[in-house]
Design the sequence.
């Protein structure tokens, strides 16, 4: 586990309307995933993506990918499942412990009540520019929530957190041994 906390950002940069093999138009959202280390890496660490930034931080990962709504929805489902399993585990732990504090009880209640906001599936009009812009804003809100959860998870579990690993897999990030 890491002895420091990483910072995260996921940005919906833009979109492209593309035609699939079956001649249907679909929207590909451009997402940039950035992981920063608040403590600069030693100069002996060589990575392809590590660069210095102001604020004395180093970017460990900076990756932009294009994803369809269906892929984003699958990420939403996976992260919701992880969040629900964490809330269930905390609830089970509290029920088995008679010395649970009010603070941990409150944080468990908050974890159980938290739900990701995700734009609903549309049957028609998903390539309309106005709808795409609205959905882009809604997706950014969702990724802001994901970022918040990644920070919370990183504080307790470091880089071994399940949510973090799921996001890395979604962005197809490999070679994370230096994080």
Sequence:
């Amino acid at each position: 586990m890491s002895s420091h906390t990483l910072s995260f950002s996921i940005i919906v940069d833009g979109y492209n309307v593309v035609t699939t093999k079956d001649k249907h138009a679909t929207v590909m959202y451009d997402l940039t995933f950035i992981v920063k280390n608040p403590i600069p890496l030693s100069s002996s660490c060589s990575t392809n993506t590590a660069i210095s930034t102001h604020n004395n931080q180093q970017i460990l990962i900076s990756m932009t990918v294009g994803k369809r709504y269906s892929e984003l929805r699958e990420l939403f489902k996976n992260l919701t499942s992880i969040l629900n399993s964490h809330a269930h585990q905390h609830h089970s732990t509290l029920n088995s412990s008679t010395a649970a504090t009010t603070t941990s009880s409150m944080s468990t209640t908050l974890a159980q009540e938290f739900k990701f906001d995700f734009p609903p599936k549309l049957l028609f009009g998903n390539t309309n520019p106005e709808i795409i812009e609205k959905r882009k804003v809604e997706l950014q809100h969702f990724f802001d929530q994901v970022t918040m959860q990644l920070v919370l998870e990183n504080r307790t579990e470091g880089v071994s957190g399940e949510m973090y690993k799921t996001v890395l897999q979604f962005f197809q990030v490999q070679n994370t041994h230096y994080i």
Remarks:
- Residues 7-170 form a domain with the PX Domain fold (CATH 3.30.1520.10).
- The beta strands are 7-19, 25-37, 51-52, 58-68.
- The chain has one domain: 7-170.
- The chain is about 45% helix and 20% strand.
